[in-house]
Amino acid sequence: MERLTPAEIAGGAVGLIVGLLIAFLIKGIAFELISDFGRAGTYIAIVLYLIVAIFAAYLGARIGAKIRIVPLPRSVGGAVGGGSPKVVDTSTIVDGRIVEIVESGFLEGELIVPRFVLRELQAISDSVDPLKRTRGRRGFDVLSRLQELSAVEISERDFSDMAPGNVDARLVRLAQELGAKLVTNDYNLNRVAHVEGVAVLNVNELANAVKPVVLPGEELHVAVIREGKEFHQGVGYLEDGTMIVVEHGRRLIGVETDVIVTSVLQTVAGRMIFARPKREGVAS
Questions:
Q1: What confidence tens digit (pLDDT) does each residue in 169-181 have?
Q2: Cα torsion angle, 98, 102, 106, 107, sign
Q3: Which segments of the chain have a pLDDT < 50?
Q4: How many structural domains compose the chain?
Q5: Does 214 reside within a domain?
Q6: What is the C-alpha separation between 24 and 172, in angstroms, rounded?
Q7: Torsion of CA 162, 164, 167, 168, to 10 degrees
């Protein structure tokens, strides 16, 4: 059985009270209609009372489930800080960079990990693929670290009325119910959440935003480590993982050299820098 949200509990309580009031107000009319039934009429009245009260409570709970409750900011002296709650998906946990973000203080508020995300993470950990299995187990290590750094709640909401395996839709619905932001690295989930009006925190976008700006004409020092797609190209990487494609750099593989930036390409996957050797004669 799913755990009810605060909105559903509040809605059900209000609905029950309203239902009892309605039953009380119509009891006079009801008793007149069933007075001819004697003792049986009393039982009928009790049953009607219960039906009206239960229906009103159910209706109140359903209405409450549709209402988005935005949590009030917590006081500065609270345990979690003033941030809004964040629903964390599997891709973010497996990625692991969220630990450094929480440690740096850029991400505040309660972190909510749904039970169905834990099941997905467990399935990855049990995979026959060694790489997936390693990533899944690392995800549980990341969760343990997050529990040490921040308040992490395991949400029992499972949304059994939704199609099995539809984790993305469940994440969006949970974020809507809690008035929470969604933390994800998944491009498709990011788009769906935006369409549904859910605020998204994308770790990849944050990583790209804090990378130093590189402009054409700037000089960089890079180690060319492998060949590129084109015949004369060499490839190297900056410390932050940004790929640098060095034109005429194929013969520089295994060498650290100075390059001049010629252009910068920004894609959904990240940033790519194109450059040429500062000393053209080296590549000849």
A1: 889 998 998 889 9
A2: positive
A3: 1-2, 68-81, 282-284
A4: 3
A5: no
A6: 41
A7: -50
Interior/surface letters 138-150, b for 16+ CB within 10 angstroms, e for the rest: bbbebbebbeeeb
Torsion angle, CA of 47/51/57/60, rounded to 10 degrees? -160
Q: d(Cα 211, Cα 209) in Å, to the nearest integer?
A: 6
User: From CA 267, how far away is CA 264, in angstroms rounded?
Assistant: 10
Asked if residue 192 and residue 173 are part of one domain, the reply reads yes
Domain shared by 101 and 183, yes or no: yes
Q: CA–CA separation, 11 vs 57, rounded Å? A: 7
The pTM score is 0.57
Q: Are 195 and 172 in contact (CB under 8 A)?
A: no
Distance CA 272, CA 223 (A): 15
- Residue 129 structure tokens: 């693929």
Give residue 278's domain range. Answer: 219-283
